[in-house]
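[Meeting: bench + compute handoff]

Bench side (C.D.) handed over the final construct sequence. Compute side (W.E.) agreed to return the predicted structure before the next meeting so the bench team could plan truncations. Sequence as handed over:
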Amino acid sequence: MRRLSRKKALNLVKELDAFPKVPESYVETTASGGTVSLIAFSVMALLTTLEFFVYRDTWMKYEYEVDKDFSSKLRINIDITVAMKCQHVGADILDLAETMITSNGLQYEPCCVLQTCYLLSRTLLLIQNRLREEHALQEVLYKTVLKGGPTALPPREDASLEPLNACRIHGHVYVNKVAGNFHITVGKPIHHPRGHAHIAAFVTHETYNFSHRIDHLSFGEEIPGIINPLDGTEKITNNNNQMFQYFITVVPTRLHTYKISADTHQFAVTERERVINHAAGSHGVSGIFVKYDTSSLMVTVREQHMPLWQFLVRLCGIIGGIFSTTGMLHGFVGFCFDVVCCRFKLGAYRPREVSPARCV
């Protein structure tokens, strides 16, 4: 009884076979079929290789939501060199709530105007130009973030024979998450209950020179390896009454890659510069003004990878699709060739007329 049940089960399984085996004696091979098979195998190998590279690659997914964190502080990282002596310039921040943020976190370091790393500065400018032309490069920068990578110029060397006629202002400050104005102008800032003032009485007008280089300017947590829009920016002027303005929109950003996770801020910037001439109606104060405003939206950037099951499904689709497509094309081409060259060829398959037999 057990043997009969096993035979019945085996026969049932054989009836469900979707891949029937054809004896080799019934199979006929042709040169055209072999050529099509070689082409199919080559195409399958090429597409499988390309699909493997797609599987190894990653992409960035952007998600947008309302920023509900309004009580925390915003960190501003600054590294700017101004072509004036440190005792002649002052930097501070005044936000929209008329709160004056003292620059206690900033350091004033005398340096030389020519004392800079030209190679890194030119590299940063080249990357900025590429970012303006090709926005997809930002994803490459996100995916190649490395801990411990440089974000700003290396420390200045003290052994310089050039006069220290410039000032490097660097450090970080914490401000409220509202619109504000970070500025560098003539004179040291002072606290005044009725307004905002800089002491510039002892600085002669001939020493005004706001040519500057922005080595690093970012918002939020400092992420090594990320290139910011103003990094490497250099402005040179020969006019003493020059005003440089940078209008920045800051967007909170959460970055999650396979190498790092951090809360940082992206920003977009527009620039403007003009000469202060009160007689011509161009009013203002000479200096460097960075006016920033925070966005109400937050961007979450996640690095994603194709799952293994999806790669296998796509691979099966490639192999099965090529087999089916090449088989149908081979059959269709063979049918057309048979019809054109054999069926309608005059006299090729015309049946011979048999004459009737005569009786003798």
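W.E. noted at the follow-up: The longest strand covers residues 242-256. C.D. will use this when planning the next construct.
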